[in-house]
Amino acid sequence: MAAAANKESIFESEQGLPADNIIGIGTARAPGSCGDLVLSKKDRFSIPCSINRFVDATVTLYEGNGAHIYGPQNRRRALRAVRETLSYSNKSEFSARVHIDNDIPRGMASSAASVVAAIGATVKALGREGLSPAEVAFLASKVGVKDAIMFPELTRLRFNRGELSCEELGPPPSIDVLALVFWGKIGRRNNRSPSRDAIDNALYFIRTGAVRDKPSLVGSGATMSTKAQQYCDPETVRPVFSFAERIGAIGVTAPKGSVIGILLSKNSLPPTEALVKARDAFPIIKVGYCLKIIKGGVRFKEDDLGEDSPA
User: How confident is the model over 208-265, as pLDDT tens digits?
Assistant: First the structure.
């Protein structure tokens, strides 16, 4: 019992800490993801669809005070990521207070983003140079996050028996995303994996589209991967493909949970008009968002990437 109580003390709710022993303060942000451009559970990788909605994390480091981490109970993985980052930096003796500000809609990887942002904020508070995306991925994996949202480019991140490998495919082209949230789960089942040929073809199209800055190729690759999956509610997913064709969309992302993304180019129906038509076509839509695909990776306050969250 004593050991369990000590473990919980590391994750206590946010509370006051002495202001006279502050080591440093760091703030960082990380983007969410609207499903996956490519998903292969069998090969243990995915390529996330990073979007312009963010989690901001602020980490204040203190000397002493029992080496505890204080922060919100609903972001325990982010708090554990702070501990892992301090240990990785040989600063396990520090305590920390963590504040999380989330602008990412439910079902769009806010938990993973909070972990990545917390790692970046901790590094900033330590006064260190930023970690490489691979280092961030390693630390994030220690708390169960294996999405590649910490990489600026479209990246295939794979974990196999504890080993990390990554392939950066290229920068994401400019693509709008119509994110639809349905009532009920439509995400992929785990009992069947798509064929290797389907995934290889999807990767080829996305890699080529990223290198050549061709949104249509990235969209085609995403659709190949999405169509190859098996879903909890196929009767909901299939009409999304036909709707995407009607509005001139270039692709559909592999859904997660109740969220699916429709990829739009400059030649597609404008996102706001597409959302109106989607509400008419799918009465079971809970809510919709007009977003953009952006680069992944940790951002700091001094960065100016022109990627403000939409209103």
Answer: 999 999 999 999 999 999 888 766 566 778 889 999 999 999 999 988 888 999 999 9
Q: What is the pLDDT of residues 296-308, one digit of tens each?
A: 999 997 665 555 5
How far apart (Å, rounded) are the C-alpha atoms in residues 262 and 245?
10
Between CA 16 and CA 275 the distance in angstroms is: 45
Domain range list for the chain:
2-169, 170-292
> Strands 259-264, 251-252: parallel, antiparallel or unpaired by DSSP?
antiparallel
Cα–Cα distance, 128 to 79 (Å, whole number): 19
Instruction: Identify the CA nearest to 154 among candidates 244, 278, 37.
Output: 37
Question: How many angstroms separate the CA atoms of 286 and 141, rounded?
Answer: 32
Q: 170-292 sits in which CATH class?
A: alpha beta
Q: Which helix (H) or strand (E) holds 3?
A: helix 2-9
**The pTM of the whole model exceeds 0.70:** yes
Q: Provide the CA 77 distance to its chain's centre, in angstroms.
A: 14
Under a CB-based contact definition with an 8 Å cutoff, are residues 186 and 236 in contact? Answer: yes
CATH of 2-169, one of 3.40.50.300, 3.40.50.970, 3.40.50.720, 3.30.230.10: 3.30.230.10
Selection from 225, 235, 146, 149 nearest residue 185 by Cα: 235
Task: Compute CA distances 256 → 83, 85, 147, 298, 311, whole Å.
Answer: 28, 28, 12, 22, 23
Whether 96 and 59 have beta carbons less than 8 Å apart is answered as yes
Contact in structure between 153 and 168 (CB atoms under 8 Å): yes
